[in-house]
Amino acid sequence: LDYLARERDLRGYDPSRGWMHAVAHTADALKFLARTRHFTPAQGTRLLDAVRAKLAAADTVFVWGENDRLAWALHAAVRRPDADGAAFAAWTARWVDDHKALWANGPAVDPAAFARVENAKQVLRSLVAILSMEQTPTPTGDAAKLA
After folding, report:
1. For labelling, which of 62, 68, 88, 138 has a CA lying 20 to 30 Å from the CA of 121?
2. pLDDT tens digits, residue range 85-101?
3. Chain centroid to CA 20: how far?
4. Which of 133, 127, 134, 143 is nearest to 47 (CA)?
5. How many contiguous H segments (helices) and E segments (strands) does the chain have?
């Protein structure tokens, strides 16, 4: 979570250097950590906060699958039997508020705010798709999908 917060290079792919993808690779690691028996509800809340902070810090719309990879990390956390559904619902509601605020002034949209809200929307869309395709849904995953 510390690395996700500190890493500022959001490039997924650079034509001269190749794949960089720090956000996606960190999300993959968090996904596997969230699947372990050692992962706690408090860590789930920290994961939500870390993903929100990373999305809030992004000044560009992700285009290299970062949103899907972040959604998989959230999926691993929200479908756990000990997931904090209220924390996830509140997290989602904050993004809804951000979306409403973005469009409150009509066409006068701040591009950086648009990138943040668009990334969040894509993460949430991916998460709903992942949860909808589960072979073995969980009550907490279903609650997250409803939120």
Report:
1. 138
2. 999 999 999 999 999 99
3. 19
4. 127
5. 7, 2
